[in-house]
C-alpha cells in the first residue's frame, strides 16, 4: 500500500429545500474536524451543504476506495454547493466554498457580454530562461496597488468598471470578506489556460482569501497538493481535485489553500467557448526593498 491512496468517495442523496448561507469561516464553522474521513484517507471532506433547492445528505455508509492515484471531482452545479475542507496540516486547514448559480444564468449572460467587450483586456508576455512567449489568455488588473506575478507587473488601476464594483460588493456582502483588488482572466477558447501556480505572492500576505467568479463556458479548475519537502518536488502521488467552474459559479479559497495547494486551468482537448474568470483578492503594500 506504500504508494497507494485510500480515498473516501462521498455518497448520499438529494433532499429537501435548504437555505443558502455563506459566512466567513470565522463566523460560522468549526475548524479541523474531518468527520467522514478515515485516518489514512487524505481526501476532501464535504463539511456542509447548502443549496437553493436541494441539499446533499451525507450517507454514512461511504465506501473507502483503494486506488493508486485517484482524482476527486467536485461538481459545481447546484448540488455541489458547500464547504470542503480539502486538507489539514501544520499550516492549518485548506478550505473551498463552492456556490453554483451565485449569479443567475440570465444575469450572468449579459454580465459576460459586458465584461468581454468593456474590460481593457491585454495579452502579457512571459520571459522564461531567456525565451519570451505570450500568455495563453488575456488579463486585466484593478486595484490601487500594483500586482506582480511570474515577473509580470500589473500597474495600479483604480478605475473600476461599475459592473465589477457591483460584483465585488455582492461577493463581500454574501461572504463577509472584503477585497481591494481584482485580476480578470479571459480564456478565448479551449486552448487558453493558466499553468500550475499558487496565489502566494508576498503582496497577498499569509493565508489569502481568493474569491473566484466564473462566466461563460465551463472549464475545469484543477488542484494538486504540494508534496512534502522530502519528495523533492515530486507531484506523482499528491492529492488532486477537479472542480468544474460553470457560468455564474463562485469559488472561495480560504485558509492554507495557497500555502499547501497549487491550481491551474488546463487546455482542453475539445474546443471550448470563451470564459471569463474574476479573482478578487486583497493586496497589501510590499515592504520597501533594502
Ligand atoms: O481561471 C481560473 O479559474 C483561475 C485563475 C487563476 O488561477 C488566477 O487568476 O490566479
From TrEMBL:
GO biological process, one term: cilium assembly
Enzyme Commission designation: 1.14.11.33, 1.14.11.54
GO-annotated molecular function: broad specificity oxidative DNA demethylase activity; metal ion binding; mRNA N1-methyladenosine dioxygenase activity
InterPro entries in the record: AlkB-like, AlkB-like_sf, ALKBH3, Oxoglu/Fe-dep_dioxygenase_dom
Principal subcellular localisation of the protein: cytoplasm
Region of interest (Disordered), ranges: 1-45
Cofactor names: Fe(2+)
Key word Ubl conjugation present: yes
UniProt-annotated location(s): Cytoplasm; Nucleus
Compositional bias (Polar residues): 27-38
Domain of life: Eukaryota
Catalytic EC class: oxidoreductase
Catalytic activity, as annotated: an N(1)-methyl-2'-deoxyadenosine in single-stranded DNA + 2-oxoglutarate + O2 = a 2'-deoxyadenosine in single-stranded DNA + formaldehyde + succinate + CO2 + H(+); an N(1)-methyladenosine in mRNA + 2-oxoglutarate + O2 = an adenosine in mRNA + formaldehyde + succinate + CO2; a 3,N(4)-etheno-2'-deoxycytidine in single-stranded DNA + 2-oxoglutarate + O2 + H2O = a 2'-deoxycytidine in single-stranded DNA + glyoxal + succinate + CO2; an N(3)-methyl-2'-deoxycytidine in single-stranded DNA + 2-oxoglutarate + O2 = a 2'-deoxycytidine in single-stranded DNA + formaldehyde + succinate + CO2 + H(+)
Record's subunit section: Interacts with the ASCC complex composed of ASCC1, ASCC2 and ASCC3. Interacts directly with ASCC3, and is thereby recruited to the ASCC complex. Interacts with OTUD4; the interaction is direct. Interacts with USP7 and USP9X.
Function, as annotated: Dioxygenase that mediates demethylation of DNA and RNA containing 1-methyladenosine (m1A). Repairs alkylated DNA containing 1-methyladenosine (m1A) and 3-methylcytosine (m3C) by oxidative demethylation. Has a strong preference for single-stranded DNA. Able to process alkylated m3C within double-stranded regions via its interaction with ASCC3, which promotes DNA unwinding to generate single-stranded substrate needed for ALKBH3. Can repair exocyclic 3,N4-ethenocytosine adducs in single-stranded DNA. Also acts on RNA.
Similarity comment text for this entry: Belongs to the alkB family.
Name under which the protein is recorded: Alpha-ketoglutarate-dependent dioxygenase alkB homolog 3
UniProt source species: Latimeria chalumnae
Upper taxonomic lineage: Eukaryota, Metazoa, Chordata, Craniata, Vertebrata
Gene, per the UniProt record: ALKBH3
